[in-house]
Amino acid sequence: MPKVLLVEDNEMNRDMLSRRLQRKGYEVVLAVDGQQGIDLCRADPPDILLLDMSLPVKDGWQVASEMKADSALRDIPIIALTAHAMADDRQRALQAGCDDYDTKPVDLPRLLTKIQRLLGQVE
């Protein structure tokens, strides 16, 4: 069962998305701020990271940049999750080190396709 680390500070978003992912067969680990997300990645690396970009302590932009600069963490795929839906926000997330980008509110089928692609589960 693939392990997803969901870093999301909004409790309602965290609860809703984690339950939906668990129903789809994913093990979900939760973090509520960017530093906790990095710490959990170091302690027990997930298969993929779903990263809110507006987080306390360290925001998603900092987390992605730090992880991609760390040889122990750089291979963990990161999907940025953000309510920022402008074209330059997508580009900024990719430049920070995210492997993909998705907007909130989350469209689960679209997000699952991105997760499966990054985990090599689909072509």
Automatic annotation (TrEMBL):
<keyword id="KW-0597">Phosphoprotein</keyword>
<dbReference type="InterPro" id="IPR001789">
    <property type="entry name" value="Sig_transdc_resp-reg_receiver"/>
</dbReference>
<feature type="domain" description="Response regulatory">
    <location>
        <begin position="3"/>
        <end position="119"/>
    </location>
</feature>
<protein>
    <submittedName>
        <fullName>Response regulator</fullName>
    </submittedName>
</protein>
<feature type="modified residue" description="4-aspartylphosphate">
    <location>
        <position position="52"/>
    </location>
</feature>
<dbReference type="InterPro" id="IPR011006">
    <property type="entry name" value="CheY-like_superfamily"/>
</dbReference>
<dbReference type="Pfam" id="PF00072">
    <property type="entry name" value="Response_reg"/>
</dbReference>
<dbReference type="InterPro" id="IPR050595">
    <property type="entry name" value="Bact_response_regulator"/>
</dbReference>
